[in-house]
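DM from R.C. (forwarded with permission)

"hey, sorry to bug you on a friday — could you get me a structure for this? deadline for the figure draft is monday and I only need the backbone to look sensible"
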Amino acid sequence: MQLENGEYTISTDKTRLDIPLIHHFLSTKSYWAINIPYQTVQKSIENSLCFGVYQGKQQVGFARVITDFATVAYLGDVFIQEEYRKNGLSKWLVETITSHPELQGLRRWVLLTSDAHTLYEKYGFKVAARPENWMEKHNPDVYKNL
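My reply, with the result:
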């Protein structure tokens, strides 16, 4: 899948992904994956539906979806490089992901965010109606201990 919007493109072609750039952002600039190993990023990309955002050939954003393509999708690792923010790219990226033809008719979408609630709310996400039903096994220091 490839969509164009002016000088920007969103593509699901994994061969276009700049994995060193993605790793650098996640391991040094994200709040959720600091110190993530390069091999872990590679493996996560291999096993996800990925969306790259590009200006020409330069990658400026990324997101990935973990899904069975039938019932559930987890949206994660969403980012736009800081110098490209305020151009509507994050909105276009989330809109593109949530309207992707292979991700329609799912029973549930999930994601975690500490700072982008208003962005995701525009696309139907909301705080879990019954958070007491959700459980997690979370190891926030997993990459620190490798």
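R.C.: lifesaver. The longest strand covers residues 58-67.
me: no worries. The chain has one domain: 2-133.
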